[in-house]
Amino acid sequence: MMEKVPAAEPGLAVRVRAQDPDRFLLTLLAPAARREALLLLAAFNHELVRALELPSSHGEVGPIGALIRLQWWREVVEGERRRHEVAGPLAEALARGTLPREPLLEMIAAREAEAEGFEDEQSWREAQLGGAGALQVALGAALGETRQAERLRLAGAAYAAGAMLRHRSRILASGRRPFAPADVDGTLARSAGLGWLADAGRVPGRAGLIGVLARRDLGRPADTGGRRGAGDVLALIAAGLTRVVAR
């Protein structure tokens, strides 16, 4: 059952399933009428991440390549219409008011900060809250769950910290440098993620399910990578069913 592609937008679903299996899985636990917006947000987030996966020439040209790509997405979010499999539908959704614009601009600003390099721990923390945190706020809005926006922001940042640990080697090999300057082994990412998770608490609603995966990732050693095990999937489904029953 969990492998079924949402019917709302099959091409987009296939794309997100390959690029972001965690958020694809979370999309399957959402009402069918909401899935297209969730998939679009996940695909947009992946495009921003791709902008930071810089070529080997980065040492010579600096962050300019990533910043140019991110500016392209900023213009899309601000209303520029472009022919692109993600940018086109995204612009339409923003024009209809289906998706909120401000969290998407926050996400771009956070990736710009990463491209330029974090100055200190505080700038790193702000980027996590403005990046994955703002994405979770946008996902909550797409689900009609807006009352817990700041708690969703914390849960999203906690998930990002766990994902950094889970995929540490692969992320660094891609050219990205998403860790704080002094965080040579991921210790800060783990402690910050656990702190955000504690502050968020158990966030009600479907968007809050990201905290289930964050908690599991932050409790594991770094660099586990790979496909999620059955335990992760079952924990997520169980939490999702509990919230459906509680509504």
Question: What is the rounded distance between the termini?
Answer: 23 Å
Identify the CATH class.
Answer: Mainly Alpha
Query: How many DSSP helices?
Result: 14
- Compute the gyration radius: what is it? 17 Å
Largest sheet data: none
Please render the helix and strand layout as text.
Blueprint: H1 10-19, H2 21-28, H3 35-52, H4 58-61, H5 64-77, H6 87-96, H7 101-116, H8 121-130, H9 132-142, H10 149-166, H11 168-173, H12 187-200, H13 210-218, H14 230-246
Helix pairs in contact: 1-2, 1-3, 2-3, 3-6, 3-7, 3-9, 5-7, 7-8, 7-9, 8-9, 8-10, 9-10, 10-12, 10-13, 12-13
Q: Features of this protein?
A:
Farnesyl Diphosphate Synthase; disordered N terminus; 247 residues; 14 helices
Detailed description of the structure:
This protein has 247 residues and is an all-alpha fold. It has one domain: Farnesyl Diphosphate Synthase (Orthogonal Bundle), CATH 1.10.600.10. 67% of the residues lie in helices and 0% in strands. It has helices at 10-19, 21-28, 35-52, 58-61, 64-77, 87-96, 101-116, 121-130, 132-142, 149-166, 168-173, 187-200, 210-218, 230-246. Helix 1 crosses helix 3 (35-52) and helix 10 runs antiparallel to helix 12 (187-200). The chain is globular. The relative contact order is 0.11.
